[in-house]
Amino acid sequence: MDWKFFASVDEIGEGEELAKDIEGEAILLVNVGGDYYAISNICSHMQCKLSKGSLEGFNAVCPCHNAAFNIRDGSVVRPPASGTPIAAVESYEVKVEDGKIFVKI
Ligand code: FES
Predict the structure, then answer these.
(1) Is ligand 1 within 6 A of the CB of residue 48?
(2) Which one of 3.40.390.30, 3.40.1080.10, 2.102.10.10, 3.30.470.20 gives the CATH number of domain 3-104?
(3) Which of 65, 77, 84, 89 most suits a substitution to test ligand 1, by most atoms within 8 Å of the C-beta?
(4) How crowded is residue 93: how many other Cβ atoms within 10 Å of its Cβ?
(5) Res. 29: pLDDT tops 90
């Protein structure tokens, strides 16, 4: 695992999110209150992109069947509408140095 440059802080304002593929990992970076969090951009239910969904506080909501994941640790906050149990998504460590955001991959 290594720190990889993700974006500059200018690219993602407060309350915004940014999705990128880095080293083969689809990652969703979120800025909540000036703090940055990174989780997998791929829903563990049927692989929809969480970046196409919405952000509710610290939860990323999947656009397909409404599952929600905690952006702080990737845990499942709400299962899909069908009630099917699903796994947590990967979460990644984030650090900021000199206005640059890095994600540990
Ligand atoms: S694909 Fe995300 S809730 Fe179904």
Answers:
(1) yes
(2) 2.102.10.10
(3) 65
(4) 12
(5) yes
**Average model confidence (pLDDT) across the chain:** 97
For residues 53-58, give the mean pLDDT.
Answer: 96
Residues contacting 94, CB < 8 A, separation 6+ = 6, 29, 36, 37, 38, 101, 102, 103, 104
- Please, is 19 exposed, middle or buried when counting C-beta atoms within 10 Å of its C-beta (0-12, 13-18, 19+)? middle
| pTM of this structure | 0.96
* Among 58, 69, 6, 56, CA closest to 35: 58
For the chain, give every domain's residue range: 3-104
For ligand 1, atom 3, which residue shows the shortest CA distance? Answer: 65
